[in-house]
Amino acid sequence: MSGLIRSFLAPANTPETQFPLNNLPCGVFSDAEPPRCGMAIGDSILDVQALEARGLLRFGGTLQTGEWTEFMALGPDAWSRLRHDVTGLLAEGSPQEAAVRPFLRPQEGVVLHMPFRVAEYTDFYASRHHATNVGTMFRGVDNALPPNWLHMPIGYNGRASSVVVSGTDVRRPWGQVKGPDDSAPRFAPSARFDIELELGAVVGVASDHPLSVTEADAAIFGYVLLNDWSARDIQAWEYQPLGPFQAKATATSISPWIVMSEALRPFRCDTPARVVPLPDHLCDAGPMLFDIGLEAALAPAGKAETIITRTNYNEMYYSAAQQLAHHTTCGCPMRTGDLLGSGTISGPQKKNRGSLLELSWGGKEPLTLDTGEPRSFIEDGDRLTLRGAATGDGYLVGFGSCTGRVLPAVNDPYARDET
Amino acid sequence: MSGLIRSFLAPANTPETQFPLNNLPCGVFSDAEPPRCGMAIGDSILDVQALEARGLLRFGGTLQTGEWTEFMALGPDAWSRLRHDVTGLLAEGSPQEAAVRPFLRPQEGVVLHMPFRVAEYTDFYASRHHATNVGTMFRGVDNALPPNWLHMPIGYNGRASSVVVSGTDVRRPWGQVKGPDDSAPRFAPSARFDIELELGAVVGVASDHPLSVTEADAAIFGYVLLNDWSARDIQAWEYQPLGPFQAKATATSISPWIVMSEALRPFRCDTPARVVPLPDHLCDAGPMLFDIGLEAALAPAGKAETIITRTNYNEMYYSAAQQLAHHTTCGCPMRTGDLLGSGTISGPQKKNRGSLLELSWGGKEPLTLDTGEPRSFIEDGDRLTLRGAATGDGYLVGFGSCTGRVLPAVNDPYARDET
Q1: B189 with B333, same domain?
Q2: What distance lies between CA B382 and its chain's CA centroid?
Q3: Ranges under pLDDT 70 in chain B
Q4: What is the DSSP annotation of B159-201?
C-alpha cells in the first residue's frame, strides 16, 4: 500500500483529512455561480469545470454540464487520466501551482448538489448478518436466510426519483400499516422510520448484455455513502409477495462526493469464504470488496450526536461487482448513472448493525443514546449521519458524510393548503 | 356515448379503423427524415411536429423534440387543446384541409419508435383473477391472495431501461433457476418464458406529494398496450423475499401509440364491488377503469397466429388512478414519463387469462394452437402480439398492436465474439 501523495496544499497532507491527493472524489458545488463539477482536495474544491473550460483539462467538454454523468460515460481510461492529470496539477512541486490556485475554492460555505443524474436505483440485500437479522425478525429464525440467498445477490429495483443529496431534510412518510394486533390496516404516519447504512456503487459504463464479474467491476465509476431510509411498519405490511415499495420510496440519501474506484484500489479485499459455491458467472475474480470503516450517528434535535453503529464494507457477502454482474444476467440494460445500493452493511456483533431495526431488535431492545434518551426508531427532529473512510499508511480516503434530518409527518397529506 | 367524429380522410371514418378522429393517439415515426411526433388518423399519420414548426399548432416547441415527453409535461389543458386543435384541422369540412394534407403520411412503411422517454417503470398486480391464479400456483390455494392485496394495489419497481417499443425482438434470457427436483440452482436459458397482457398508464404531470385518486387520474396522460415479458422459472427462484428482479428485466414491450386519457373518456367504467372497504385515500372517486377489449395472439415461426386469450381492462380490481395514488402515499416523487403497468389482466374464465402461466396452469395443461401445436410457454421464434380497442357507437378507439418475436438464447452469454 503506497503512502500519501503530497500536494502543494498543506491541508491535503494531514493524516486526518478525508480528501488527500490520493482520493480526489467527484462532486458538484455552487457558490455565487451555478453548480459545476469539482473535486475535493484537503479543505478545498478544485473547480475542474472551469479548468476544462480554460484548457487545463481536456475531456471533450464532458465536465461542462454541471454534473458528472457525461464524464462517467467516457469510461475507465478517461477516469484514470483525470486522476493522473489532476494529481499532476495539485502535487507538491507542481509547475502549474500558480495557474491552478485560482481554481481552488474553500469547501466551507459552498452548496453541494447531486453529483450525477441517477438513471435507475437498485438496492441489494447482501450482508449476511443483516439478512439473517431481518429475516429472523420478519419470518422467524427458521426462515431467516431465504433459500436463494447464498446462490445470488438478492436485490430489488428502487425508486431513482427519490434519491437526494446529503443535507436534504426527509419528511416522515404516511403509509398503510397493520400491526400484529390491528384487526384492519390503518393509514398513518410511519412509527418505525429507520436508516440503512449502505455504500452505493455508481455505474459509469453502459451495457446491454450480461457482464462478467470482471467486466462489471470495470464498469463501476465509484462509490458513495448511501442511506436507504426505510419505513419498517409500511414494509412489513406491503412487502409480500412483490418486495418493498412505498416503504423505501420516500428518500434515499447519498453523499455528495463520489470516491472513484481507482482511489479505493489500495483497500481491496476478498469477500468472506463461500458457504456454498457460487455459479461460475458470479464467482469472485479477485478482491472486489473494500476495507472501508463506516459509522452512523444519531443526533436528537438540538443535542449532541451518538455513534450508534460502527461497521465495515468488508463485511459484505457479495461485492458490487457481483451485484452488477447478477443484475445483467437476463440481458437487463444498464446505463451510465445507475446506482446500486449494497444493502445494509451489518457486522457480526450487535454494535456493528447497520439499521435501527437490528440495533433495537425491532424495538424490543431500545438503544440508550449518550444523552440518556432511548431510541428504537427515528424520532422527529433526529439527524442521522453516515461517515466512512478507508485508512491507508498515514492517510485516509474518505467519503465525507451523508446526513439528513427527519421532519414530522404532515398533518394531512391531502390538504393542499398545508404549509 | 357520442358517435364517430367524421374526418375529411375517408379511412378514418370506417367502423373498423382503430384510429378515427375520436382517438388521435400519439406516436413517434420516421421515414426518410428523423423521428418526429405524429398522431395516427385512419391509415395515415399526421406530422404534428412539422405542423408546429410551421405555426399550425402552438405548444411552445414541445413537439419539436422527436418524442412526447416535453409535451406531456404541459399538463391536461394542453393535452385537451391539442386534441381540440387537431380535431379541427382534420374534421370533415375543415377549412384547413388543403393546408393540412401535406402533413399526412401513410402509416405503411414508416418506422415507429418509443413515443416517450420512460422515466421509471412500475408494475402492479391488480387483477384479482390473475393474483389468485398465480398465488395458487406459487404459494398454494390457501395463500393465493396475500393478506394485503384487497387493501391496496400491490406493485413493484421494474426496470425502465428494459422498456422497448413494439416490433423489437426479444432474446430469451439466461438466469438462475432451481426446479423442485433440482438439488442445486442451475444457470441456464429460461425454459418458461412468458407474456403478461397489460395496459400501461403514462404519467404526464410530475408530483412530489401524495396524490388523491382524483388528482392521480388527472395526471395520467394516456395508456399503451404493455407486454411484461416474464421468465417464470427465474421468477419462482428469485422472488422471495424482495420481489421479481431479473425475471422481469429482459424486456417490456409497449405499443407505439399512446391513447390519451381523454380519448378513452366515453369508455370509463367502475371497478368491481369492493370485497373489503378501501381506506379513504384509495377509494374510487368516479369511474376510472375503461371498457377496453384486449387479446393476445401467438404465431409460431412462419405459421398463422392463434388468439390465445381475450380479456378486458374492466376486469381490474384497481384502476391506474388508484395505483398512482398509492404510489405517491409515502411522498414518492413521480416524473413525466413514469410508466405504470396495470398488472396482468385476467378475466374470470380460463380463456380470459392474460399469461401463458395461467393459460397452461404452469405447464400442466398445455394449450393447443390452431396449428395443432401444443404450447405451455413461449418457444423460440414465436411472435406474441397484443391488441386492444374500446368500442363506441359505430367506431373504435384502438391501441394498434404490441408485438415482439422471441429469439433463441445465446449459446454463451459471456462469449464476447458470439454474433
Answers
A1: yes
A2: 20
A3: 1, 418-419
A4: -GGGEEETT--EEPPEEEE--TT-SS-EEEE-SSEE--EEEEE
Has residue B36 been placed in a domain? yes
- Per DSSP, the three-state class of B374 is strand
Question: What residues pair up with B90 in beta bridges, in sequence order?
Answer: none
Contacts of A411 (CB under 8 A, 6+ apart): A418
Joined grid coordinates for residue A73: 460515460
Same domain, B290 and B248: yes
Residue A415 inside a domain? The answer is no
Say how many domains are in chain B: 2
Of B93, B113, B133, the one marking the end of a domain is B113
Residues lower than pLDDT 50 in chain A: 1, 419
Asked if residue B412 belongs to a domain, the reply is: no
| Whether B174 and B61 share a structural domain | no
A130 is catalytic: yes
User: Would the CB atoms of A161 and B243 count as touching at under 8 Å?
Assistant: no
Q: Tell me which of A84, A113, A129, A130 is the catalytic residue.
A: A130
Q: How far is A23 from chain B (nearest CA, A)?
A: 32
Which H helix or E strand runs over A41? strand A36-41
CB within 8 Å: B245 and A331: no
DSSP-derived 3-state class of residue A65? coil
Distances (CA, A) of B15 to A367, B19, B45, B393: 70, 10, 18, 9
* SS3 state at B136: helix
The domain that contains A249 carries what CATH number?
3.90.850.10
Boundary residue ending a domain (B113, B146, B176) = B113
Q: What is the ipTM of this complex?
A: 0.97
- Residue span of the structural domain in which B254 resides: 121-407
Q: Which of B130, B139, B215, B242 is best to mutate for the A interface (most A CBs within 10 A)?
A: B242
Q: What is the pTM of this model?
A: 0.98
| Closest residue in chain B to residue A207, using alpha carbons only | B161
Whether B416 maps to a domain, the answer reads no
pLDDT digits (tens, 9 = 90+) for A169-219: 999 999 999 988 899 999 999 999 999 999 999 999 999 999 999 999 999
Alpha-carbon Rg for chain B in angstroms: 21
